[in-house]
Amino acid sequence: MVDTIGAASSQAKDAEISAAISDEIASWRRIFGQRQPNVDAKVLLRNAARDLFATLKVDRTVHPDSHEITRQEAIDALYGMAKLANISDDDAQKIFSESFEQSKSQAEDTAKSDDNQASKAKDWRTRVFDAAGLCNKTFAEVKYVIPNLIPEGVSILAGRPKIGKSWMALDLALTTALNAPSLCLGNLEPLHGAVLYCALEDNPRRLQRRIARILSSRDVPWPERLHLANEWRRLDSGGVDDLREWAESVPDPVLIILDTLAGVRPERRGLESVYDGDYRALAEIHAWANKIGIAVVVLHHTRKMEADDPLDSISGSLGLAGCADTSLVLNRSSQGTTLYLRGRDVEEAEHAVSFDPETCRWTIMGDAAEIHRSESRGAVLAVLDDATEPMSPAEIALAAELPKNNVEQLLFRMGKAGEVTKLARGEYAASSRVDLIGAHKNRKDRKNRSGYPPKLTLLTKPTGGTDAAV
Q1: Contact yes or no for 294/253 (Cβ under 8 A)
Q2: pTM (2 d.p.)
Q3: Does 3.40.50.300 match the CATH number of domain 144-347?
C-alpha cells in the first residue's frame, strides 16, 4: 500500500514537471523565433537552459538521469533552438553543461539554506539557559589593552578632523607593540603584544616621520611587533577575513587599529536604513573580535553640530555607537580638550587630556570636571588676590573670563572651603586678603556707631491738638 502511494506521488510529480517543461519550451521557442539580429543568441540560449533546468528541479537529491524522458525532451528542444540561432553543437553543449552545473549548485545552496532554517527552528532549546545555571558559571575576566579605557571588542575613537586622533592611535599602537615597561597617555601600561595599524589616510613616508617623532623622547628600537598597512579591503569584501588571517599569523595579537572607518566601511545597500547600514558596518568585526578576545579600535569623525550627549556627536546614526562595545570622543572646547568614555565594560568618564607638540603624545591629566574646577578656582583666586576692593560675581566673571553662572556656583563652593569670604550681598574677597576684609569690617562698625542707618521717627497726633514728633 505504501509503495503504491509513493509511486503515485512520484508519477504526479513527474507529470507536473513534464507539463511545466512543455510550457517553458513553448515560451522559449517563441522568443527565439522573434529574436532581433542585435540580440546575442548565446545569451538567450544560456537563459533558456537555466530556466529549463530550474524547472526540472535539479538538486542534490535528483540524479542527472532522473526524469529522463522529460530531461531529454528539454535537451532536444534546446538543441533545436541552438540550430535555429546557428549555434554549433559544441558551443551549445558547453552552454548546457555550464547552465546545468549552475542550476544544480543554486538548488543545493537553496536546499542547504532550507535545512539550516529548519534546524534553527528546532534547536532553540539549545540556545536558552536559566539564571540558576548562569549563576554557577565561571567566565574569564575582560581583557583591557589600555587599562580602563580600551577593552577587548570594538571601540570607536571619534573626533573632529585634525584634532589629533591619529597621533593618539599611533602612540597606543607603538606603546602596545613595545616591550614592557612602556607607558602611554601619561602613566598607563598597556597589554603588550602584536599590533596591526591600518593607516588608510597616510603613506609610508608620513608614517615613518610620525613614528620617529613619537619615539624621539624614548630610547627604544622600533618595534617589530607593530605591523603597518596603508591599504585594506572593505570589511564586507574580504577585509574581515584578512584581519582573521593576520591575527592567526602572529603570536599574541592584541590590538588592531583601523584609521579610518571610511576606508573599510561597507557600501550601503539600496533600501537599507541609515541605522541598519551603520550597525552592519561593524557587526561582523564586532562578533569576531569578541569571540577571540582582541581589541579593534576604529577611528571616525564627529559632526560639526554640538550635542548634549557626546555619543550624539559621532558622525552618522547611533548604529555605530550601538554596535561598538566602547565609544571614545575626543573633543576640544573653550574649557579645554577632553576624552569622553562610555561602554559596556568601562565606567563612564570624561578625562581632561593635553597634547605635547614636541613629542606629539597625549596625556590624561585627570577627571575633566576636577581639572576644570581647579583651573577655574585658580582664575577666580587670581582675580580676587589682585583686587583693590571687594568684587561682585559679575565683575569676577568678566575679569576671569568665565561664565557668570559658573562663577556664582564656584564662589559658593569656595566660600564653604574657606577660600573666599562673602562680605555683603554680592561682595566677595579672597580669604587671604585680610586688608580688604578688615577695611570692610571697620566701615561697617563706623556706620553702626554713627547711627547708620538712621532711625525712623513716628509721627503721631497728641491730644493737645498740635502735631509733635514722638
Answers
A1: yes
A2: 0.61
A3: yes
